[in-house]
Amino acid sequence: MTQTELFKEMATKILENGSVLRFQAHGGSMRPFILDGDILEVEPIAGQELYPGEIILCTLENSMIVAHRVVRISCRDGQRLFLVQGDRFPAPDGFVTLQNILGRVIALERRGRHIDLRSPAYRLMGRLWMALTPLGQQLMNRLAALRAALTRLTILLAALALALASVSSWLFLMDGVSRAAAA
């Protein structure tokens, strides 16, 4: 049994018992809201309503377990589907069903500070993040393109500096040869 399967089994048992699950987050897919190393608290959903903007712990189609944000809720063939996405990703992971949702992330602990994700301020930040994500992704893409262009320019300038240094050395050497020949 893999670590992912063991974690899922343990998390499912704890949440089905009605208890809160605490675990350490790994990865950066939810930056800046959840950082690698934060301690997350997850409660069972037990018939409670889920809303866009909330963060859920769920299993994706590829069997990965993630704590990602619900960005949209749809209904197909009478079944509710939840579109989830990591805050740092430009595209959603895909839809998950209620059966794939382990629980709702309700709080996190960072450097000893407890942050309640159910607070009105945090809910507002989550909704703003969802609204601004397309703009943020465009900005990130443009910054990445600018960084790549600056890297290429730096390499070009370094190559030019090497070429000029080589030409300068050659001219200096030729100047010394012509002075020696003249003497």
Structure description:
This protein is α+β, with helices and mostly antiparallel strands. Helices cover 42% and strands 28% of the residues. Strands 1, 2, 3, 4, 5, 6, 7 and 8 form an eight-stranded antiparallel β-sheet that branches. A hairpin with a 5-residue loop joins strand 3 (55-59) and strand 4 (65-76). The longest helix is centred in the C-terminal third of the chain and has 63 residues, at 120-182. The radius of gyration is 27 Å and the shape is elongated. 17% of the residues are buried. The mean pLDDT is 86.
Layout of secondary structure:
Elements (H helix, E strand, L loop, with lengths): L2 H14 L4 E4 L14 E5 L11 E5 L5 E12 L2 E7 L8 E4 L3 E10 L2 E4 L3 H63 L1
Notable traits:
elongated; 8 strands; 183 residues; 42% helix; 2 helices; alpha+beta; eight-stranded antiparallel β-sheet
